[in-house]
Amino acid sequence: MTSLTLLSPAKLNLFLHITGRRPDGYHNLQTLFQLLDYGDTLSFHTRIDGEITLAPELPGVTFEHNLIIKAARALEPYKSAHAGIDIYLEKRLPMGGGIGGGSSNAATTLVALNHLWGCGLSKSQLQTIGLQLGADVPVFINAQTAWAEGVGEELQAIEMQPKWFLVIQPDCHVSTAEIFSHKDLTRDTSAIKVAAFLERGGQNDCEALVRKLYPQVDNALIWLQNFDRNARMTGTGACVFASFASAEEALNVQAQLPKYLPGFVAQGVNQSPLYKLLPSR
């Protein structure tokens, strides 16, 4: 096996409750990660000189700071000395959008290189490595829509009813670090159970702050809530989303988007195709 092409899917946070701040500076949270059938595509081609390459370059991201390269470096101790890789990224997911683009890219890279380089690591071991790269990476390695607690690494797979989502991207880049360190962020929401969320829903504790700091997000939500009063922001933003019972409904609203608001329609899936696309050894 010398080459592999895999989907690197997007996610939505159907809700995001911040239940406290930890001594290490991270936050305890509760969220439901909904995986989508839409994302970036990563292609991998092995080489025998130990080199690692990535194309194309992403604007504003240096080679060594790209999470794809960080993921590849994290697996170097487990590969043979001569094993290298050429990686090509077909980017569809916006950066800084709160839909997991970078984390998903890192997860897909870990899974792909574990296979191509014959590292022999288990899914659990890959999740442990992935957590060092970002709190959202383990859910993409797990490849299942999941209820999450802790910093997002304590995962419980959950089956959601089929829905279609319109995801739109306001013209701004929201810094996750800025939002989680902001003095006005809500950090004391009471923990809830899965049944309570399924019955009554939840909110995104970052949304009010982001709407205040980024008028583009506020304006996008005002527009989208004309079609779904429960439309909300995902993660720390900037993307916002609404859910629909059918693709036709979602596509109908997408067709009405103002020109300054790009967006896409995707179906929620309970399992991403990541492992199904891996050839059996």
From TrEMBL:
It comes from Cellvibrio fibrivorans. It catalyses: 4-CDP-2-C-methyl-D-erythritol + ATP = 4-CDP-2-C-methyl-D-erythritol 2-phosphate + ADP + H(+). The active site is at K11, D136. Keywords: ATP-binding, Isoprene biosynthesis, Kinase, Nucleotide-binding, Transferase. The gene is ispE. Catalyzes the phosphorylation of the position 2 hydroxy group of 4-diphosphocytidyl-2C-methyl-D-erythritol. HAMAP family: IspE. Its EC number is 2.7.1.148. ATP binds at P94, M95, G96, G97, G98, I99, G100, G101, G102, S103, S104. This is 4-diphosphocytidyl-2-C-methyl-D-erythritol kinase.
